[in-house]
From TrEMBL:
The keyword Glycoprotein does not apply. This is Amino acid permease. Pfam families: AA_permease_2. It is a multi-pass membrane protein. It is found in: Membrane. The chain crosses the membrane at residues 36-57, 69-90, 111-130, 150-167, 179-197, 217-237, 257-279, 310-335, 356-380, 386-406, 426-444, 456-475. PANTHER family: AMINO-ACID PERMEASE BAT1, OS04G0435100 PROTEIN.
Length: 520
């Protein structure tokens, strides 16, 4: 890229970034200052295996025993198929905002409005949850008492520090994301390998032992109940596409960054989860549910007091990077939503800072709503109830892209980006959709506590968010304010294939008119 103009790729490598956007009906609004390595780091720190494994380790073991580790492989394989579908879509549509523009151009305005509405709320709630979980690590590091006031203050600190980094610009976002990536790799792969090699207290056969977790029931039921161990881990890779207009050569690089996020994240999670299992001094107590927070004791026993403190520093860095990446992804989604006039306050939300080239007002919202949710939790709200719909909401948004892509394929769409699965694309799309439906069914299964709200909270949360979105959509009709293209995947593919920049050198007729944008 160094020999080319900014935002351009050589003719032999295809259409330039700026011209690609023009074909899609947009002009550059950002600085393309994020490297592909930083783009991968952004997706990886959003996915954050350290956060995911730490948050669900005890729950997974007490529900499904040591074999619950295999959910990391199952879900990783399923989400890799989803990432491949996303890769083809973003390669044709390298537009900021990810889920929203992809569903709009694959299906239509109203469909995209609902997908984006569900996804943005899922991300805002996830930001809140990660900040709240991270406050526990920070509190342990500074030996702060575990009170509601301390939790609120430290959660707010996470949100504001991440906002300050995001506010500084794309280069700072990429820099901190790379630091977070290093922290994640040390905290999951490095520590996991150390525990597996030097602190092993179990035999490897333990991963095939249920340790009696099923009781008198069938183990298959217990294993299915532990699915969250994987389902909570493998999202975040789509954040690579949320900042597509801030990356050079995104049509080629972002699909690779998404796939790498899944592969490295899966390996990291396996080492981390496996290391904690192997190093647990009393694994049976964890499986029996008697030790609900076993990781601090494992770290203390394996690393000593000083080593455990150092791990806390690494973990805090990872949590901060995760909040940072989530804020960045949410703000780009809201910007993309607002740029097309599809959301209240769209003129304000679509403003980009001329100095830092970031959507500052959307960033303010991406920080303010989680702050409000933290205050709600402090006032007596339940973190579990507030965040219950977040994971299923994200899966619903993901599968809205997969379904829309399959619909277009059936109508004759052949993705025209440089990342292309060819004939295998249809099969991958079908299997990715089947996996997604299976995952959503598992997430939606009611609990068995006998308390209605607790058992059905996931579906209640999803129904509230989707119901409010549908009500607003049909009453306010926000889609009528937007005149950008929709459902044009087949037409855009034809334009891109016909574009002189995508032809082999010496083939293009110099006198042939340039194809116009679908918005011309």
């Amino acid at each position: 890229m160094s020999a080319d103009q900014p935002g351009k790729t050589p003719a032999a490598r295809g259409i330039g970034d700026q011209e690609h956007l023009r074909v899609l009906g947009y002009e550059d609004s950002f600085h393309r200052s994020m490297s592909l390595w930083a783009n991968f780091a952004l997706g990886f720190t959003y996915l954050s295996p350290l956060v995911g494994v730490y948050s669900l380790f005890a729950l997974a073991l007490s529900t499904g025993g040591p074999p619950s580790i295999f959910w990391i492989l199952i879900v990783g394989a399923g989400q890799l198929l989803v990432a491949l579908v996303f890769g083809e879509v973003v390669s044709q549509y390298p537009i900021a905002g990810g889920i929203y523009p992809w569903t709009r151009r694959l299906w239509g305005k109203r469909y995209a409005w609902m997908a984006a509405w569900v996804y943005v709320w899922a991300m805002l709630v996830t930001i809140t949850a990660v900040a709240e979980f991270g406050s526990g690590f920070l509190g342990s590091l500074i030996d702060a008492p575990v009170t509601k006031e301390v939790t609120l203050g430290l959660s707010v600190l996470f949100l504001l520090v991440a906002f300050a980094f995001n506010f500084s610009g794309t280069k700072m976002l990429g820099r901190v994301a790379r630091i977070g990536l290093g922290a994640e790799l040390i905290g999951v792969i490095g520590l996991g390998l150390y525990l597996l090699i030097f602190q092993r207290k179990q035999e490897f056969s333990v991963f095939f032992s249920t340790m009696g977790v099923e009781g008198d029931a069938n183990y298959a039921v217990a294993f299915l109940g532990a699915a969250l161990a994987g389902l909570f881990l493998f999202y975040g890779f789509e954040a690579c596409g949320d900042v597509a207009e801030e990356v050079a050569n995104p049509a080629r690089g972002i699909p690779r960054a998404m796939i790498l996020t899944i592969l490295v994240g899966g390996v990291s999670a396996l080492f981390s989860f496996g290391g904690y299992v192997m190093a647990a001094p009393d694994l049976q107590a964890v499986v029996d549910g008697n030790d609900i927070d076993p990781i601090p004791a494992i770290l203390e026993a394996s690393l000593g007091t000083v080593g455990a403190k150092l791990f806390l520093v690494v973990a805090i860095t990872a949590f901060l990077s995760c909040v940072l990446s989530l804020q960045a992804a949410a703000s780009r989604l809201m910007f993309s939503f607002a740029r097309d006039g599809m959301i209240p306050g769209h003129a304000w939300l679509s403003k980009v800072s001329p100095r830092t080239a970031v959507p500052v007002n959307a960033l303010i919202v991406a920080c303010s709503i989680p702050l409000a949710l933290c205050l709600l939790i402090y006032a007596g709200g339940s973190l579990t109830q507030i965040t219950a719909f977040a994971v299923i909401g994200i899966y619903v948004a993901f599968q809205s892209v997969v379904l829309a892509a399959l619909r277009q394929r059936i109508k004759g769409w052949r993705p025209a980006g440089p990342f292309n699965l060819g004939r295998a694309g249809f099969v991958v799309n079908v299997v990715a959709l089947a996996y997604g439906v299976f995952a959503m069914v598992l997430l939606a299964l009611p609990g068995k506590t006998g308390v209605f709200l607790d058992d059905w909270i996931v579906l209640i949360g999803l129904a509230v968010v989707m119901g409010a979105g549908l009500l607003y959509l049909f009453i306010a009709k926000p889609h009528t304010n937007s005149h950008q293209p929709e459902g044009d995947a087949i037409a855009v593919a034809a334009l891109l294939r016909a574009h002189p920049g995508n032809a082999a050198p010496g083939v293009v007729d110099p006198g042939k008119p340039r194809p116009t944008s679908v918005s011309d």
